[in-house]
Amino acid sequence: MKQTPDEQLVLLWTEHAPRVLAYASRHVDADTAQDVVSETFLTAWRRLAAVPDDALPWLLVVARNTIANQRRSGRRQQRLAAQMERLRQITEPAPAADVLAAERAAVLDGLAALTPREREALLLIAWDGLEPAQAARVAGCSLPTFHVRLYRARRRLQAATAPASPDLATRTETTA
Question: For residue 126, what pLDDT is reported?
Fold first, then answer.
């Protein structure tokens, strides 16, 4: 007497589910292993006519392929999440143009209020990215003299820009 498809699946499950679970458990975590077993037997049910008499090797191949598919899917999800995070960072709202214009105007006014030597000291550090020793050589003065110029320039720029932008001087100090 021939078995019904339901009986065949129950027989496959009874005989081979523990072995398929053991195989999956060696390759993935316990929760994922349960999912792998479920997917493996779902595939067996869908392709019951293709399941050979010696079903265990066939079921283990299906389990291996299921694990590989899940890993690929996981990597794709991670790449997508990383890309979405980059896009989120890129598309964060920018400050309003009037705020940037006001800050720029305050900085230019503040720089104009400095002496030429103070302005040069500040720009060599903040805009050209030089270290104080390098900037002192460019400015043609000793390192202690350059530090005094830079200190005075920062304080005067901070005082000149404080009402317009309280964090502006802080930004120039952190670049030094």
Answer: 87
